[in-house]
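The data layer described in this paper is built around a simple, fixed record for each protein. Such a record has a labelled line for the sequence and another for the backbone structure tokens. For reference, a complete record is included directly beneath this paragraph.
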Amino acid sequence: MMGAGDQNLFSSLYPTLSQQLPREPMEWRRSYGRAPKMIHLESNFVQFKEELLPKEGNKALLTFPFLHIYWTECCDTEVYKATVKDDITKWQNVLKVHSSMDWLIVVVECDAKKKNKTNILPRTSIVDKIRNDFCNKQSDRCVVLSDPLKDSSRSQESWNAFLTKLRTLLLMSFTKNLGKFEDDMRTLREKRTEPGWSFCEYFMVQEELAFVFEMLQQFEDALVQYDELDALFSQYVVNFGAGDGANWLTFFCQPVRSWNGLVLRKPIDMEKRELIQNQEATLLDLRSYLFSRQCTLLIFLQRPWEVSQRALELLHNCVQELKLLEVSVPPGALDCWVFLSCQEVLQRIEGCCDRSQIDANVSHMVGLWSYATEKLKSLGYLCGLVSENGPNSEDLNRTVDLLAGLGAERPETANTAQSPYKKLKEALSSVEAFEKHYLDLSHATIEMYTNIGRVRSAKLVGKDLAEFYMKKRSPQKAEVYLQGALKTYLSEGWPLLITHTRKQLAECQKHLGQIENYLQTSSLLAADTNLTEEERKHFCQEILNFAKQPSDGKGQKVILSMHPFAQLKNLHFDPPNAVIHVGGTLSIELTLVNQMPVTVNVDQIAINVHFNIEKNSYRKTAEWLTKHKISNGIINFPNEVVGFSLSRSSVPMLELYEMYERSPSDNSLNTTGIICKNVHMLLRRQESSSSLELPTGLTLEDGAHVLKCSNLILEPGVNKLTFRTQGKEPGTYTLRQLCISVGKMQFALPHIYPIVQYDVYSQDPQLKVEPCTDILLAGIPQKVKFTVTTGHYTMKNGDALQLSNADVMPILYHPESKAVIYSNTREKASEASLTIQSSEKITSISLPMAPAYHVIAFDLEVLYLPSTSVCTVENKNLPGKELWRKNKENETFHNCMATVDQKVTIDCPWSIYSTIIALTFSIPFKAKYSLLSAGKRKYIQVCVQNMSEICFHLSDSNLKSSENCTDLILDPLNSKVEQHIYNKQAVFFVWELKWTRALPTSLQCQFSVNFCSAPSEEHSLSLKPYIYEFQLENFFTLYNVKAEISPPLGAEYCKTGSLCSLEVSITRLSDLLDVDKDEALTESDGYCTTKLLYEVVDNSSNWAVCGKSSGVISMPVAAQATHKVHMEVMPLFAGCLPIPDVRVFKYLPHHSAHSIQLDADSWIENDNLSVDKNVDDQADNSSIKSRSSIHSATSAEHKGLPMPRLQPFSPGQVFNSSAGMQVLVIPSKDDHILEVNVT
């Protein structure tokens, strides 16, 4: 702020003003939606001078006068008019010339001056005059400060009002001018594509803004300005590397002549800032200054760990930018700059943090330690400090040039004992000093990496350290670091790193004289495809040279792992199921991949086999073993990457799936995401104790069972080897180890995986007899297969199977019958004629000669001829409940074929014991009969159903009575020709039953029919017919029932809704018979009557019976006796309606034993009574129930009432002559909907 007017007055107020102004914070609201901030305003007060006002185009923001203040304590009007008014006018005119519109006039009031001058006008008159003269439109630009030097409440209130006004005006001016400055800065940045634009000039402008933010303690905003400059410059460098370069970048392409590192101990490095301002800075100067400013602000923000992160990125980026800009850099200069910069950053962070903070944030600093170690190592190699003979003259000159580029040590670090400058100078001074500094840095870096869990990085530094030890001829120290690095690379699967580390390890082992380890590593390198062909051949030759050396007197061989030398690809058994009998030969073809780059002469390849005797009590047969063995005989071994077992290729792929979670109420989508289903495979813990490198010191098993191949040549790539063995002892043989012998070396595979086994068995002879089809049918020739497994028995000439003869199952012999002999692998070996000799009791089947472990198979035809005829017996005329129960029991029997078991005893030549086998034969037919009536005429229908899957020819059907009654005639109504019956079909036969005089009430019948399979085959044996027996009881017609429906009087047809007349006539057709003599028969004076119950039932609901629907009548037992019943019925539908059913039952007294009881309330001509007769194939007429009552006979007896009983007539005793008749019913005239019932 610039002060004008009374300078003495301002000087007296300055101490209080400068102290009170920044005390209270102000809310700073900025444009473009940036968040408001609370800031403390500090201002520099200077005397008003016209030459200090900013000129046009001046972009300096730090020296800009944001507010002009005119101070006066004038209380006299004359003085005001004489001097003060003119002075204020001149002051404002100067401000207007320089476009300065931010000003304030302060009038100071003092009570002492008021007392000394009596003619002084009131204060308001001076203030009003100033406001009228200069503040017409801005009255707030004139303020009054009352007694500022007094310690009073009035003075304090005046000060508070004045300071608030001053802060507000100052902040408004600052915000306005800052916005204008930012707009000018953006305009300047947008002109960066124009010729002549300078990055250095723009840099100074934006840094001016950063300084302002820093002055306001807005360090975050200040840091943003430097980050924008950093990003802008980096983008120009990248574009330059892509061929789009700016002209001003040529200033930064000057050769590097100084590499003294970063300077972070000064808030502002004025030396480098002047170089940038004068456009004389190099790339390293610009980067160093820019980072120093960022570092200062980050430390102000208490983010020192971000300094280390940014420093590491800066150092790597500078190296790349120097390459992109093609800047000339002396060898080693950049390494010196990086080393010094790393040390400077680390020391700067250590200077502002305590030890506990540093230990807790090692992860942020370890990268700088590692980078410094790497660059110091490069300087050591460059300056000859790592070579065996020390540095030469050329190395010394290079060292002197590098130290000269460092320049003199800076004053701020001159008194520091361990400054970066002193460390580097000391490290390059001698070999011992370099080794000390390099080892200290390396060990510290390794320890830090290990503590934070970055084992991979620690091993990488250790690998560099091992390389240093190898240069220093200390292989024993190098081996520890190389083994550790190799273990890490193996666990993580880095092929190129593994190869490189193994080469170093091989050299180390060779220097240490570790022959076995060196040979093992050499074999791994010889099989490593990442090496060149020459390198692989070199390591392979190392192995072969050692193998050709004469063995020592001990005769011990060096045993190495076979994994790098050769790999198993697959194994093929012959026979494929890997099962042989005792004495059999097994061939094993092994496919081996030679991974060496040259041809190798092998002395011997041996497979150690472990023999396991079967512990089970039974002996495994060839059939059992075949079911549990592989079919193709090929076992494939997994392909492993040579040299490391846990490779990245073995890690499973991510199995990612979409996951949706929906609301159970409205099925709306709540959340969605991705889920990994095999996370348990990816995050498995690796055992640190497990050895990832191939084991050494292998031991071979000693066993009696060894498969060998000698004097072989293994070509590079795939080789096939064949081993043969003969089965000696029964048991399981497991291939355990594979060993390749080359000179005094052996390459062993300690475990063959997956498990490879073959079985040797010894089997007893066996006989198996089984049908050739699914079922054996009785009555026709059927083929049976005989299978003889010889096992360890050898079939000799004269060996035969002795079968005990059975009359019901003869064996049919064909002269052309053959027996086929199969080998153990089911291959046909030979064929021989089959000889069968039969005697009265024995059938002898001569077996052909066959060696052990072969199979003899032949087919024979057998015919099952049971001693009694194939027949079934059925009687449907049993009493009601008993017949119903029998039908239920036989229901499953009729749904499938009946079976008969036939046992046969066989004597085998290899055993003293007889073998009993059972063959099950099925009856192919099922028959049932039906009794049909036409008045008094009777017909018998027999249904024959073919239950099998084949077709038959039926002939010579016959039905006869077993009593041989001459008065009975069964007149066939069937065709005389042969009939075909197909599978699952039926054929019907019908006979009319005629008699000349009275017959017994029971008639036993027998049905028979000849059958043969189609097409039939001629045999010497005659086939027996199929016989079906059944019994008829009470089959004579006793009553004829006839029903007739007549339309109403005067009508031609019945109409719906009109009452019609139903007449039921029950006529007796015969006189008294024996079957009528029961409890219902009443005899009086030679006149016999019986009681009948009739019932009219319409199950189809076509008629409505009006009045009585049932009743009991007394029926005379005399021929042509007739009883008629009249009732009214109403048709419910139009059309041809069937006449309702009329049922007739015997009405027995309550003490009858064969009847069904009725309720006492419903038996006497009850209109609601109906009898429901369930007829199952016209056989079951015994189920009667009442619709109006659910009480049983037992419940009725509990009432103590004598109950009448009903007994159904036997089939054929009642003939319904109106069954099937229909009545035409026409609709009534007023019907609008026509319903027609068609049945």
Remarks:
- DSSP finds 26 helices and 55 strands in the chain.
